């Protein structure tokens, strides 16, 4: 079969989704919930192109992402280009570009679509949308705590209960101290151990211990003891006095005073990206049906500097739409679909099209969303269309309506009618 007559598939590209109206309504609900919370904290929206130079990701995101997970190609101008797999390097580039003009500190957010070439599975697709929330220009731990607070409040806005999720927190600063100073590991061994811990939950316990021993040898038992700590107060004195541990203690104190009590210390939490420099955190679902990390983030103080710009401290997180969709579905928190169209005008005969157009223009001018059926089908078919599209109200236009300018508003769900004059129609619909 030649390409010209090959049957085309109606399925979307693997790992991507089509958004039909009801899907789009849910997506808009997710986005609007996110936006409402972050704007309440004073964050403002930005965006950028989904194409970036591949060199940017090679510099800081890690070789695994660039070599195995990106959609990269050489464009017609010979440039090595990547469709963005994440947003943080992009926003760092934007900050670096106008470093002298931007009034720090900045609170920015965006909801871009991102692409990664990986095996599609529950909670992970090749294309997804992700809320990115970042503070630039503040070194204080108050900024770290604020970012975690924003994440917490978003979960609560989706209807999540404290017992149904927790926030696991660690410090890359503490981990770097242990690896570089306490265990005196080489850069290569440190990198291997970080990646090993990052994949800990995907490995058999015996295999994990064996691999830790191959790196730490006789010191492996100390590290395994460290990984069993579930509270920052359980750290041995040799670890607890270090700056990274003190930072964690202070963050937990700040969050506790804010009333955020479902936070736990997780020494095995690494986060996959190489650019984190301090606090790292992840929000986890506690339901065994969907037990997994939902999203996370942390502090990255050196990322802007890779663009040869003045260093700007940053802390933020990325929250994907796929995992949060799964979460609210798991806990029956999905909103009921409602059409954005308020009224469906049915026409009994083509001679009344002019009146239907006049009425719809009048209502739209008064901020009522209206759809007009020009199909010339029988009335029952027009009404059925409105019902299937879940449009809440119907007005039928025929001879009586044409002569009197009095209409019957039919409430599809309640199966009730209300008789309203033309002059009151917009007001009544807006109040419904």
Shape: elongated
- Radius of gyration using CA atoms only: 28 Å
Name the poorly predicted regions: none
Helix content: 25-40%
N-C termini distance: 57 Å
Proportion of beta-strand residues: 15-25%
The chain-level structural class is alpha+beta
Biggest sheet character: 9 strands, mixed
**Number of contiguous helices:** 16
Rounded mean pLDDT score: 93
By DSSP, the count of extended strands is 17
Summarize the entry for a quick read:
Helix content is 40%, strand content 20%.
Explain this structure.
The chain has 432 residues and is of the alpha+beta class. 40% of the residues lie in helices and 20% in strands. It contains 16 helices and 17 strands. The radius of gyration is 28 Å and the shape is elongated. It starts with 20 loop residues before the first helix and ends with a helix.
Question: What attributes characterize this protein structure?
Answer:
9-stranded mixed β-sheet, 17 strands, 20% strand, 432 residues, 40% helix, alpha+beta, 5-stranded mixed β-sheet
């Amino acid at each position: 079969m030649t390409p010209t007559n090959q049957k085309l598939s109606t399925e979307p590209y693997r790992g991507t989704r089509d958004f039909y109206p009801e899907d789009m309504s849910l997506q808009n609900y997710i986005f609007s919930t996110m936006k409402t919370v972050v704007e309440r904290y004073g964050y403002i929206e930005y965006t950028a192109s989904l194409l970036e130079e591949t060199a940017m990701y090679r510099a800081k995101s890690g070789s695994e992402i660039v070599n195995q997970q990106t959609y990269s190609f050489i464009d017609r101008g010979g440039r090595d280009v990547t469709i963005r797999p994440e947003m943080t390097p992009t926003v760092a580039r934007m900050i670096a570009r106008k470093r002298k003009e931007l009034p720090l500190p900045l609170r920015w957010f965006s909801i871009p679509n991102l692409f990664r070439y990986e095996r599609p599975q529950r909670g992970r697709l090749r294309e997804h949308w992700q809320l990115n929330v970042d503070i630039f220009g503040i070194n204080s731990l108050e900024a770290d705590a604020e970012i975690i607070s924003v994440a917490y409040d978003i979960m609560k806005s989706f209807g999540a209960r404290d017992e149904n999720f927790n926030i696991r927190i660690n410090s890359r600063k503490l981990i770097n101290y242990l690896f570089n100073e306490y265990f005196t590991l080489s850069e290569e061994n440190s990198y291997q151990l970080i990646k090993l811990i990052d994949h800990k939950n995907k490995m058999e316990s015996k295999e994990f211990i064996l691999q830790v021993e191959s790196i730490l040898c006789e010191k492996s038992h100390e590290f395994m003891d460290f990984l069993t700590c579930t509270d920052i107060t359980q750290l041995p004195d040799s670890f607890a006095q270090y700056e990274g541990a003190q930072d964690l203690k202070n963050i937990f104190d700040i969050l506790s005073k804010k009333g955020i009590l479902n936070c736990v210390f997780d020494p095995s939490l690494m986060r996959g990206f190489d650019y984190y420099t301090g606090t790292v955190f992840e929000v986890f679902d506690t339901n065994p049906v969907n037990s997994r990390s939902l999203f996370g983030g942390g502090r990255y103080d050196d990322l802007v500097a890779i663009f040869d710009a003045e260093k700007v401290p940053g802390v933020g997180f990325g929250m994907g739409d796929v995992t949060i969709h799964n979460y609210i579905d798991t806990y029956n928190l999905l909103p009921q679909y409602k059409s954005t169209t308020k009224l469906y005008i049915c026409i009994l005969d083509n001679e009344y099209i002019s009146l239907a157009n006049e009425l719809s223009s009048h209502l739209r001018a008064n901020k009522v969303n209206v759809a007009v059926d020009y199909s010339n089908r029988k009335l029952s078919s027009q009404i059925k269309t409105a019902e299937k599209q879940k449009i809440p109200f119907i007005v039928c236009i025929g001879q009586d309506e044409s002569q009197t300018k009095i209409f019957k508003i039919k409430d599809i769900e309640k199966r009730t009618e209300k008789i309203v004059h033309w002059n009151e129609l917009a007001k009544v619909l807006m109040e419904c």
